[in-house]
Amino acid sequence: MFRRADEVVAVDSFRWSRRELLREAVCAGCTLAGLREIVRGQDVAAESKIDLSGPKLPGVVRHPAMFWEPQPDKKVLCKLCPRECRVADVERGYCGVRENRGGSYQTLVYGSLCSLNVDPIEKKPLFHYLPGTTAASIATPGCNMECKFCQNWEISQFRPEQVSSRATTPQELVDICKRLPSEHRCHTIAYTYSEPAVFYEYMHDTAAVARRHGLGSVAISNGYMLEEPLRRLCQHLTGIKIDLKAFTEDFYKKMCSAKLKPVLDALEVLASTGIWMELVVLILPTLNDSTAEIQEMSKWVVKNLGSDVPMHFTRFHPTYRVNNLPPTPVPTVERARKISLDAGVHYAYVGNVPWNEGENTFCPSCGKRLIYRRGFRIIENLVGDGQCPGCRTRIAGVWTQEQALAFKPKPKM
Length: 413
Known about the structure:
This protein has 413 residues and is α/β, with parallel strands linked by helices. Helix content is 23%, strand content 21%. The strands form 5 sheets. An 8-stranded mixed beta sheet has the order 10-11-13-14-15-16-17-18. It has a 4-stranded mixed beta sheet with strand order 2-3-8-7, with no helix packed on it. It has a 3-stranded antiparallel beta sheet with strand order 1-12-9, with no helix packed on it. Helix 8 crosses helix 9 (330-342).
């Protein structure tokens, strides 16, 4: 899954807010002394200053991991994701970023940011969550899946020692966001690009700090997480987007080295908490684009999650290990959107097709166009008070920062 540890790579996607975030932060008087660059060969202590044992590793940040159980012979059982890795001493889990040291489980990517950008929230994509705003988007290396079509494989499929990163505490990241000039002001922190489940501890702590400072937090995830950590995380998140890769176990096994059932279980957990959630389905020609599969998927969403959960059907472009397929034909994603709407999904979208009518939001009752999009830009937004101005139908979503920060997960029944 990973390259050799001595193959240090330069990651083209290592950009700090399109190079503007740090520059603008400096102009705003933000001190960057806290953004301590990880020097290879140096083991940087995390914010907690806990004395962690074990030999030093180049380019990692050590921090106690959450959700694991001790086992005999200094082994540990990871309880974060459905893989439930049983990890021997001095070994790592499948994700490559959680390590057993003497019977104590540690994360090696706490605050080890390899990407920090200011993105439109529509890029996540989240279409019903504070449209027209921006999100400070962060990532660390690592993932608990191995999708052969991953768009960010340069960071998701590498070990932390192999990716250029900067050590940033939760408070430092929030301070940067708060001190940005008004034209780059972020309402939200998005945990994205790789898989935020593998930097769970940092996401959990940062989301808690961010909320105290009036910032929301959204996870852009594959949904491969167990119920307990997922419910714990929802205490601090204000929204989530899940990549539903397909609706067959065969696809998940062959294309992602994972399973579908745990993702569906996680989606039902999320629905039970009441958190705002949107789904994205990347359509790969011949692999997950059949009418029957999309119908079955859409009907399952309506029955188990609700008709108000938006579904985005996005266009695939050849990348990583899938270069033998052509880009998804535009009519294919348009057909998927129509199938989903016919199945009862109120808000279905076409993605990666700029200037397509399927990018826009329509009232599910009267059909009025409510949000007019062009790519990631909002041209017109008529959902000022969460209702259709024509027929007064409630439009599901998170439309104000106050609404986002007021979210509290429903207790488990």
